[in-house]
Amino acid sequence: MPVSLHHIVIDTHDLPTLARFWAEVLDWRILSERPREVVIGPEESAPVGICFMPVGDAKMVKNRLHLDLTCGPEDREAEIDRILSLGGRRVDIGQSGTESWTVLADPEGNEFCVVRPKQTLVS
């Protein structure tokens, strides 16, 4: 049997705060909360979740891996506003302003994008 993706792991200084931010952004829930690990997901039987682990060092550079989020085209700006109200912020990583995505960061500075719906990307 080949391997499969189990969790995406995000290092954090504040486990509960960052886990709750992402749970609210994705409309997921906390599945497991331990002193050194918090796991969120849409449900316990979901094939992939996000695991938050403590780290002592500060984030210094742009992420080498980031999440792309999407929603319906008519909901995009409202969703960006909602994410900003939850504690996200807009960040500039050198984009030109003509991209079809918006770059945001979570409360600890981890970049992610809100992209247009997948069906609009397929020609």
What's the structural domain tally? 2
Would you state the CATH class of the largest domain?
A: Alpha Beta
Helix fraction bin: 10-25%
Shape: globular
Strand content: 25-35%
What letter string, H or E per element, gives the SSE order?
EHEEEEHEEE
The Rg value, from CA coordinates, equals: 15 Å
Secondary-structure class: alpha/beta
C-alpha end-to-end distance: 33 Å
Strand order of the largest sheet: 1-4-3-2
Please describe the structure with a list of short key phrases separated by commas or semicolons:
4-stranded mixed β-sheet, 2,3-Dihydroxybiphenyl 1,2-Dioxygenase, domain 1, 123 residues, 8 strands, alpha/beta
Brief write-up:
The chain has helices at residues 15-26, 76-86, and strands spanning 7-12, 29-34, 37-41, 49-54, 67-70, 89-90, 101-105, 111-115. It is α/β, with parallel strands linked by helices and 123 residues long. The mean pLDDT is 91.
What can you tell me about this protein's structure?
The chain is 19% helix and 32% strand. The chain has a 4-stranded mixed beta sheet with strand order 1-4-3-2, covered by helices on one side. A 4-stranded mixed beta sheet has the order 5-8-7-6, covered by helices on one side. The protein has helices at residues 15-26, 76-86, and strands spanning 7-12, 29-34, 37-41, 49-54, 67-70, 89-90, 101-105, 111-115. The mean pLDDT is 91. The protein has 2 domains: 1-54, 2,3-Dihydroxybiphenyl 1,2-Dioxygenase, domain 1 (Roll); 62-123, Roll (2,3-Dihydroxybiphenyl 1,2-Dioxygenase, domain 1), CATH 3.10.180.10. The protein is α/β, with parallel strands linked by helices. The chain is built from 2 helices and 8 strands, in the order E-H-E-E-E-E-H-E-E-E. Residues 4-117 form the VOC domain. GO terms for molecular function: lyase activity. Keywords: Lyase.
